[in-house]
Design brief:
Elements: H1 2-19, E1 34-39, H2 46-49, E2 58-63, E3 69-72, E4 75-78, H3 80-88, E5 93-99, H4 103-113, H5 120-139, H6 146-167, E6 176-183, E7 194-200, H7 206-212
Helix pairs in contact: 4-5, 5-6
Binding site for Zn(2+): 39, 99, 102
Organism: Halorhabdus utahensis (strain DSM 12940 / JCM 11049 / AX-2)
InterPro entries: Carbonic_anhydrase, Carbonic_anhydrase_sf
């Protein structure tokens, strides 16, 4: 433990040295340009995957399954950690970041097909995803192997999270909601670590997206058009 902690603190020393003067304009509050909702996976480095070194630029949220929703008194609502920057800091862009080989999507897939046994906290999180992914599991093409099925379902999950944000009365219509998939397993054409845009404000057709957003056309891609 001490070796790990020592290494972490050494890294923090380097961070503090590099970032010391980057907080000067942030002492009294924050107005992040975007809120990103990523999966809690050690391979998904939220700020780094967008090349961000600026405090105050991204409001980063992570949980298993890059969920934008939570249960509140038996009702599905937009998670408070996602909603906070939208409601209180003027943030008008939300980016849902799925990733290839997602463990939470895999566990949900298994729960919906064969059943699983997990500790209560993990089971609760998977249970939140299950009703939103059930139709996707039932719609998957039959010729897919397990890994491909999971990655198709990753896209489907991103779409459902985008849809939930857009349908919420608590998210203003002016907020742009984008869905992307972070690929480090060679599932898409491109380099490992690239983000592929699959959904912009509910539009999922790649051709329509490229026509509407020509400036990012080379980053628009999908595995599954269902």
């Amino acid at each position: 433990m001490h070796d790990v902690l020592g290494s972490l603190l050494a890294g923090n020393t380097a961070h503090a040295s590099a970032f010391d003067d980057r907080f000067d304009t942030l002492q009294d509050g924050q107005r992040p340009d975007a809120v990103t909702v990523c999966c809690s996976d050690s391979r998904v480095m939220q700020d780094h995957l967008f090349g961000n070194d600026d405090p105050g630029h991204l409001f980063t949220v992570s949980n298993i399954g890059n969920r934008v929703l939570q249960d509140a008194d038996g009702e599905s609502v937009v998670s408070g950690d996602v909603l906070y920057p939208i409601a209180h800091t003027g943030t008008e862009t939300a980016v849902v970041v799925g990733h290839t080989g997602c463990g939470a999507v895999t566990a949900t897939y298994d729960a919906l097909t064969d059943g699983i046994s997990e500790p209560p906290g993990i089971e609760h999180s998977i249970g939140i995803l299950e009703p939103h992914l059930r139709a996707g599991v039932e719609t998957l093409p039959e010729d897919l192997d397990r890994a491909a099925a999971i990655d198709h379902l990753v896209e489907y999950n991103v779409d459902r999270q985008v849809e939930f944000l857009r349908d919420s009365d608590h998210v203003p219509a002016a907020v742009d909601v984008v869905g992307v998939v972070y690929d480090f397993q060679d599932r898409y054409d491109g380099r490992r670590g690239e983000v592929h845009v699959s959904n912009v404000n509910g539009e999922t057709d790649p051709d329509a997206l490229r026509d509407a957003h020509p400036e990012i056309s080379d980053r628009i891609d999908r595995l599954w058009e269902y």
